[in-house]
Write a structure and sequence with these properties.
Number of helices: 13
Helix content: 55-70%
Largest sheet: 2 strands, antiparallel
Shape: globular
Distance between the termini: 53 Å
Number of strands: 4
Strand order of the largest sheet: 1-2
Length: 330
């Protein structure tokens, strides 16, 4: 049983009765409240699910991180449980026949080519996605739902099937060359080139840029833009000072969703590019496959992970300073 001390006073000027209670009663009431909200699972109920989620998410990353510090066996694949930094050193330095360690920039060029291809993919997707998302956001609501459905239709089909469709489009007797021949133009060598790989990446990741930007613009009241037009603002000014700042969270989210998978992509460079340009994804696959150098392949994977984490930290710092919440979601 709790005691409550109540003191009452009357303010003659404002004709108000002031009642004050002992704060200890409020403290005891807070202690009696349940530790979790209604409908929320307690820790014993969520522990199995959390363990399974950690096993299939953090577990593989932990294994790759461990393998990157182990030694390579003398023959075959796998690892030898002996700590070494050789996999990371091999990314920058190589030993010649006399045992002299020299700088080797081959793998840096691979990272540079992958970074360039990811940046081009991200930039082109942004240029194409922003007007598409803005146009969708200005349509009637029913039409918006239909257009968003059309954007998501490619997700219904396996990525390999869509990539093989581009092989049929870009090959020597494909639609592009058949159209060029009909117009009297010479046939172009499109398939198994860096251009074909770039086209495949842009096609694959374009929806990942459109949907976040549309989500940022969907709730915008475009009457504000109309008011700006009435006050004499030009279209470029309205776009730059009203619409683009509103879409910044969606743009940043789309940039992350496109850049991160494009940087380590594997399917498009192999199937469309023919493996002529060595990228990070192909390099890692070859280390785990043909070269059977698991520690070095794991070290390359950890380096990519660190680079992407730095990019995420940079976006987080910018969003905190700008006061804009950025979510990596579709």
């Amino acid at each position: 049983m709790y005691r409550c001390h109540v003191a009452a006073s009357f303010d003659s000027r404002n004709s108000v009765c002031v009642v004050s209670t002992d704060l200890s009663v409020r403290t005891e009431a807070k202690r009696r409240q349940p530790t979790h909200l209604r409908g929320q699972f307690s820790w014993p109920g969520t522990t199995p699910a959390l363990l399974v989620a950690a096993l299939f998410t953090v577990g593989p990353l932990a294994i790759i991180f461990l393998f990157s510090f182990l030694s390579r066996p003398a023959q075959g694949g796998g690892v030898v449980y002996k700590f070494t930094l050789e996999p990371y050193i091999s990314a920058l330095y190589q030993s010649d026949f006399v045992g002299k360690t020299v700088f080797d920039g081959r793998y840096l060029r691979v990272f540079g080519d992958s970074l360039l291809q990811a940046l081009i993919t991200t930039a082109v997707c942004l240029v194409l996605a922003f007007p598409i998302a803005l146009w969708i956001a200005t349509r009637p609501q029913r039409l918006q739902n239909l257009l968003v459905l059309l954007i998501t239709i490619p997700f219904w089909t396996n990525l390999l099937v869509r990539t093989y469709a581009w092989i049929l489009i870009l090959n020597e007797n494909g639609i592009v060359n058949s159209g060029a021949t009909a117009l009297g133009l010479p046939k172009m060598e499109l398939l198994y080139t860096p251009l074909a790989s770039q086209i495949g990446l842009i096609y694959t990741f374009l929806p990942f840029m459109v949907l976040p930007i549309y989500a940022s613009l969907a709730g915008f009241d475009f009457r504000l833009a109309e008011a700006a037009y009435d006050l004499g603002a030009r279209k470029v000014t309205v776009l730059r000072r009203i619409i683009v700042p509103l879409a910044v969270p969606g743009i940043l989210s789309g940039v992350l969703l496109v850049f991160m998978p494009a940087f380590g992509s594997y399917v498009q460079p192999v199937l469309l590019g023919g493996g002529k340009v060595l990228l990070v994804g192909n390099l890692i696959a070859s280390q785990f496959g043909d070269a059977r150098n698991w520690p070095f392949g794991a070290a390359l994977s950890v380096i990519i992970l660190i680079m992407l984490m730095l990019a995420l930290m940079g976006i987080a710092v910018y969003s905190r300073k700008a006061g804009k919440k950025v979510e990596i979601s579709l």
